[in-house]
Amino acid sequence: MKITFWGAARQVSGSMVLLEFDDEYKVLIDCGTDLERENNPEKPKLAYGIFPFDPSLINLVILTHAHIDHSGQIPNLYKEGFEGQVLCTKPTMDLSELLLLDSASLNQRKFKLIHDSKKRSKKRKDVDSRELYLERQVKEAMDNFVPIAFDQRFKFKDDGYVTFIPAGHLLGAAHVYIEFWEEGQKKTLGFSGDIGRKNYPLLIDPQPLPPVDYLITETTYGDRHHIDQDEAENILAGIIQKACIDVPGRLIIPSFSVGRTQAMLYTLNKLYTEKGFTPIKVFTDSPLAKASSRVYEKSVKLLNKHARTFHEENESLFDFENLIYLESNQASKAVSNHSEPCIIISASGMVQGGRVEHHIEANISNPYATILMVGYASEGTLGWKLLNGERKELSIRGQKFPVNATILRIDVFSGHGDFKDLTNFVAAQDINKVKKVFLVHGEHLTMQNFKLTLEQKGYQQIEIPDKGQTYEI
Known about the structure:
By secondary structure, the protein is α/β, with parallel strands linked by helices. The protein has helices at residues 35-38, 68-71, 74-79, 90-119, 135-142, 232-246, 260-274, 287-297, 305-314, 329-334, 356-363, 382-387, 419-427, 444-456, and strands spanning 2-7, 16-20, 26-29, 60-62, 85-88, 145-147, 154-157, 160-166, 174-182, 185-191, 214-218, 250-254, 281-285, 323-325, 342-346, 369-373, 393-396, 399-402, 406-409, 436-440, 462-463, 470-472. Residues 261-386 form the Beta-Casp domain.
């Protein structure tokens, strides 16, 4: 078999790994959007349309989870000639449809900008129309998704089996375990996908992979420890007390609509239901978050024991007094005039586009406002600037604003496992069995540090693939 790393190689996003078996059967694990290239259009374009390989020659896609940096290019794969199926878990299928349709809606707006710029005889260098798919391409792709249950050994070719193992991180997220035979010899390969963390709100803990010959693992937090050690309810309660009760202010929380927002709404529901916390008005400003919450509600059996018990006792994971979903842009903007203490949860988590930009703009100079960052933000985004100390003055949509709001950060809602979680994941592998470990989905320096850690633990043959690098196993 040949393994080629076409994405998330020495960078965090764009997960895409090509497996070429000896019988010429080709499997793509993940087909994600390269967010680094999206934010840097000067990077070189690829050979086959927007892909570095011929999509028509791919037989199968195996999808670890729904996040766009793992699923976002699947409609384009079909647009460029792929005719096979996409295997994933049922929640991954449902959440992928929501996220891909949301991307298609954004693409529709980008097409309009391209059209308008042509009318004005101006070229838009930041948008490549070949990468823009629309709703019809999403629907075509979704018709070919095949849901597979966790821990079910599924035969995908005559001498090949795949099993999805719970990874935590996001509803439906999976590690991938592949068994195959070449020249009469059984071989095994494991791919971590994104590794979750223990005791995360709603989600079950990540499960270990069986012993494998070859391991591909993410390294996002391969040199970092999570800072927050207390329970999510206690941390969030303390922040709300200071931001909205001790001082009658407002709390703005930039958050990803899928996964992160559900964890926070569930935590707020527990605060109000179990701990007698006064229900402050909560505005959830994302139609995508509302739709995603419905997927979580219908997938309760796949959540952790605490969430299942809570749902059984309260009939809902997310609905509570004073929770308001904002549907329209007009309703979103009207919240800026809301005079009472409130919490606004809005996308996107990196404060890069989305309705949250308006809320930050309207509140960044308000000394009675608190902006709470709850996750990772890529360099160059407004979220990154908020997290990295540029706080005297900020430029938002071309206008400069003094920063008078309080800026806070917590990582208790981060869906990624940290250094300890990642080392425990690899440590489940037998040093004497695993022949090679590939590190992906992380910053290059983080990968180098994580490699040193694994070598100190006795693991050999650790590779940090470059983009496009091929290995024979």
